[in-house]
Amino acid sequence: MTQYAAPLDDMRFALYDVLDAEQVLKALPRGEALSRELFDAVLDEAARFSAHVLAPLNQGGDAEGCHYDKDSASVTTPKGFKDANAQFVAGGWAGLTAPEQYGGQDLPETIGALVKEMLDSANLSWSNYPLLSAGATEALLQHGEEWQREVFLKPIVAGRWTGTMCLTEPHCGTDLGLLKTRAEPAPDGSYRISGTKIFITGGEQDLSENIVHLVLARLPDAPAGTKGISMFVVPKFKVARDGTVGARNGAACGSIEHKMGIKGSSTCVMNFDGAEGYRVGPPHKGLMAMFTMMNAARLAVGIQGLGLIERAYQNSLAYARERLQMRALGGAKFPDKPADPIIVHADVRRMLLTQKAVGEAGRVLVLHAALLGDTQLRSTDAAQRALAEQELSFLIPICKGLLTELSNQCTYDAMQILGGHGYIAEWGMEQFARDARITTIYEGTTQIQALDLLGRKVFQLQGAGLKLFLERIGAFCKQHADNAQLAEFVGPLAKLAQQWGELTQRIGVAAAGNPDEIGAAAVDYLFYSGYITLAYFWARSVASADAGTRSAEFKQAKRATARFYYQRVLPRTEAHASSMRAGAASLMDLPEALFG
Predict the structure, then answer these.
(1) pLDDT digits (tens, 9 = 90+) for 155-164
(2) Helices (DSSP H) in 27-170: which residue ranges?
(3) Which of the following is catalytic: 443, 471, 553, 592?
(4) Is 471 part of the annotated catalytic residue set?
């Protein structure tokens, strides 16, 4: 069985030393009662719950999977999942970051992000169930009516009910303008929802008393395309406006998917047959509420990638320290043993350091994004909220797209380190690789994240978020321009930041004459942007370590890992830049008929 222990020391370094999160959060409204002591107590307990309750269920849940009963249209989760959820609810975790007025604890999303990383590392399948409840919470908070928040949100925050997002249909994936689910008005002001949704995480399960589906559908007078989409709240059991729970609704699970990974997470086909529901937000404006859920979910999936990187790293590192094989090329490092542990070999170190480097910088990235989210949600300064929203909006596709792609690389590397044992289920490493694969697909594939980043966040929005982030990098480089100890990081970072702006302008000019240039450059642009983003957070991490009171060994580890990242990972930007400069011609010139 694989092991997991939350990396609390590095989490606290990122939170307090690099980002100064305690002071940032205390300075925001509702921050007076926040303190490091409170944060640390929450993180300690989350680490205990993750390591001792969730992690031991991970492999068993994968082997068992979920069970679907056709006669009752019900789903049973793997052994231990229900009890773990009961402990989660009893501990108040379901409402950790929700507002107090709806029964939550009102802790910052920044702390919630660290807790989520622990849950994801420990048991990604199980952690998918509360993930969608968090998205539903945000949608109801921002777009629901007060009675809907009272009736639906409070039980979700309490953990008695869970939420889902019902977007995708069999004939359409990302293109929601094609969806066909219908919503017919009823005389009492409710609606009757009919249609089929697929890939619904947690659409049916045995963990909660009721399931609140947030469903996209079309009203009878809806215009075509995405401008005709509305959102509806549709519970598994009918709920009156006064909160009274009634009979089973016309919403049922038709089947569950048999998947490559996350087998303990139920992925459902949901059939809505005249199901009673209530509209959330104005008619034909459902995409606004959907994007609220989607942005929360995309950052959350980026954190899933981070959690898998950490789990794979911990276990492949432990194996590399214990597995004896061959001698170091420079001579025996452990002459008293029959062979050296494989951690002495250069390529094993390459794979371990890649996991360590992208994981530690990725942690700072998602916490920085979460801090921006807290600023956007809590600040009473409209200008401050707007700036935070612009930068966060820009960073979300990087968090989701880059960290999930890197989780695939890192879990692959972890399997390689274990060799043949990595391919065998009992060692657990192949499960991480299978689980990681979905993270690049759901909540928007990597290609969709890339188009969102370059097409929407950069060009459609005139690069507002990019400008803010480049200004942040520029200010850091200027502050440390004369710091000889940081020169090996600041110099390359400043040059890449300048190139980032120039390449963006070059793509924009090309796209003005040929829109295919955006699609041709997008994925390379996402990786290119992401690698520079992690380089910035590595430079900040080294600066913070140097200025702090950490041990000499801690500082040495940070500097050495940053140096590895700059010398062995960051050069990937050169290949991506070259591909972007090549343009769209080689992609688009070949006639479709000649593909074979």
Answers:
(1) 999 999 999 9
(2) 36-49, 58-64, 81-90, 109-122, 124-143, 146-148, 154-158
(3) 443
(4) no
